[in-house]
Amino acid sequence: MEQTIVAPATPNGTSALAVIRVSGNESRTILQKMLGVKNAIPRTANLAEMRHPESGKLLDSLVYIFYQSPHSYTGEDSLELFPHGNPLIVRNILQAMCSIQNVRIAYPGEYTKRAFLNGKMDLVQAESVAEVIHSQTLAGVENAHKLLSGKFSSDIHALAHQLKNLYASIELDVDFVEEEADPDVSGWKERFDEIQNRIQNLIAHFKNSGTLNRNPRVVFYGAPNAGKSSLLNALLKENRVLVSNIPGTTRDFIEATLHLSSGDVTLIDTAGIADIPQNELDKRSMEQSESAIESADLSICLVDITSVQTEESQKLLAKARAKKSWIIYSKKDLKENFSETNSADEIFLSAKTGEGLENFCKKLEATLFPQGESSDEYWITSERECAALKEASAGIDRIQILLRENPAAELIAFEMRQVTNALASIIGEISSEDVLQTIFSGFCIGK
Ligand SMILES: Nc1nc2c(c(=O)[nH]1)N(C=O)[C@@H](CNc1ccc(C(=O)N[C@@H](CCC(=O)O)C(=O)O)cc1)CN2
Ligand SMILES: Nc1nc2c(ncn2[C@@H]2O[C@H](COP(=O)(O)OP(=O)(O)OP(=O)(O)O)[C@@H](O)[C@H]2O)c(=O)[nH]1
Ligand SMILES: [Mg+2]
Q1: 354 and 224 in one domain?
Q2: Could you tell me which NCBIfam families the record lists for this protein (predicted)?
Q3: What is the pLDDT of residue 335?
Q4: What pLDDT, on a 0 to 100 scale, did the predictor assign at position 5?
Q5: Could you read off the pLDDT of 199-247 as tens digits, one per residue?
Q6: Model confidence at 190: pLDDT above 70
Q7: Which of 58, 141, 189, 262 has the smallest set of CB atoms within 10 Å of its CB?
């Protein structure tokens, strides 16, 4: 960390402005030699001409901000430069700064790594920084913000604290009993159970970031000709898929993105499911439909309102209710006085007239992007953190066995240290250079 690091914080390309980050002791040298600034006021934006430290050649006229250690992202003296967004200018400035001794280009993730090493954030928060940047959905961003703000970290601290208290009271029990008799372990089991429950609860909140970062998937299924493709087109307001009155028009399943105000949804139109497939192709496309239904976050069964009473429709409806699918009665325009007395999850609409579409979208939105109580719940998305939780859980399991079979205080104490270490590794109180290398090398340059 003796070296000063420089890197672009914006992508390599033409833009209105670019951002360059500098962190380390030479930030002040750069201020003096390149910007001609002796006493920069920290955290204030100023305009200056930036010049090459040796030739004095103008590099750009730009805005800069100086951050004084320890009040910066990394905790070191730092500098942010906002030149014009020409990649040639950015490269020129970086090269010119690197001509100063002890200044070099940063490794990926090095700013955040320094922030971690300087105690500005723990390892969970450092990992969540990458998540904030790379999340592909608003739900993913929101979750990453929760992790960044330290919600998960403070749960880990609370657990570690609970374990420490338990350790202290076990030591006390053991001291008290001395050599006269075995300590009374009856009360310990429950306290370990409680810790185990909390760890298990955290493990249950693991979701790989792939699932959190893809749009919710909604699949339409139903009998051939039910109007699935027509509904997809009506929602997208374009003729995206082929529609016809020939049953079996859709063969492959088709995905399209529907933009709702709270987020995007992937709609999947499938081949109609008939009672008995007519041929091999039929059979294969129906199998595809079934697997699309299984992979969906929400499945919606369409039933042509004019054929509700048929045996085939009734079979499909029974299946839909068993699967907890939503049910849409389509082509409402063909049967105006249909009794709408079914369950709340049953919807009536017409792709032809557009009736019911707006309500349907509202319902989709409310279900897929629930608003309101911005809960404290979060998902853990790091495999590393999840593995450490499992390690802690396995340690508690071993303690429970000891309590049943051989409650020797020193054995229990040994296992408790393993659990404590596993928890400490999550937030990085214990970490190896290897682990840090793995984490931060996956970051962008400049982050
Ligand atoms: N210009 C700029 N925008 C940015 C960042 C940045 O580094 N620079 N960030 C980079 O991720 C994010 C904001 N996060 C930041 C976190 C800490 C500090 C910081 O200077 N912390 C000091 C002072 C805190 C204070 O005065 O409130 C500190 O923690 O001591 C800056 C940005 C997003 N936007
Ligand atoms: N009157 C009316 N006709 C509709 C409506 N929706 C679809 N149709 C007609 O129903 C027929 C079948 O529509 P599709 O959207 O192709 O049905 P599908 O469910 O995709 O059928 P497959 O792809 O064969 O499984 C077409 O002739 C559509 O014009 C509607 O809301 N009202
Ligand atoms: Mg179709």
Answers
A1: yes
A2: mnmE_trmE_thdF, small_GTP
A3: 84
A4: 98
A5: 999 999 998 777 777 889 999 999 999 999 999 999 999 998 999 999 8
A6: yes
A7: 58
Closest ligand to residue 228's CA = 2
What pLDDT, on the 0 to 100 scale, is given for residue 29?
Answer: 98
- ipTM of the complex model: 0.72
Ligand 2, residue 232: give the atom nearest the CA: 15
Task: Give the structural domain span for 420.
Answer: 128-208+379-428
Q: In whole angstroms, what is the distance from residue 389 CA to residue 358 CA? A: 45
Looking at ligand 2, which atom is closest to the CA of residue 247? 24
Q: Same domain for 77 and 150?
A: no
The pLDDT-based confidence of 145 (bands split at 50, 70, 90) is: very high
**Which residue in 113, 207, 122, 111 sits closest to 424, CA to CA?**
122
Annotated binding-site residue? 87: no
Centre of ligand 1 to C-alpha 310, Å, is 64
**Are residues 353 and 415 both part of a single domain?**
no
For a mutational test of ligand 1's pocket, the pick from 73, 113, 116, 125, i.e. the residue with the most ligand atoms closer than 8 A to its C-beta, is 73
> pLDDT tens digits, residue range 323-372?
899 999 999 999 877 666 556 667 999 999 999 999 999 999 999 887 76
User: Domain of 106: which CATH number?
Assistant: 3.30.1360.120
The answer on whether 54 is annotated among ligand-binding residues is no
Greater pLDDT, 183 or 67: 67
Largest CA distance in the chain: 89
Ligand with an atom nearest the CA of residue 223? 2
State the Cα–Cα distance between residues 409 and 50, nearest whole angstrom: 66
pTM: 0.77
Q: Closest Cα to atom 14, ligand 2: which residue?
A: 227
DSSP assignment of 239-264, as one string? --S---SSTT---S-EEEEEEETTEE
Same domain, 362 and 423: no
* Structural tokens at position 253: 């399943």
Which atom of ligand 1 is closest in space to residue 70's alpha carbon?
30
Residue 124: which H helix or E strand, with range? helix 123-134
What is the average per-residue pLDDT within 284-290?
87
Ligand nearest to the CA of 225: 2
Residue 447 lies in a domain: no
Whether 394 is covered by a domain: the verdict is yes
Question: What phi, psi does 78 have (nearest 5°)?
Answer: -140, 160
In a domain, 24, yes or no: yes
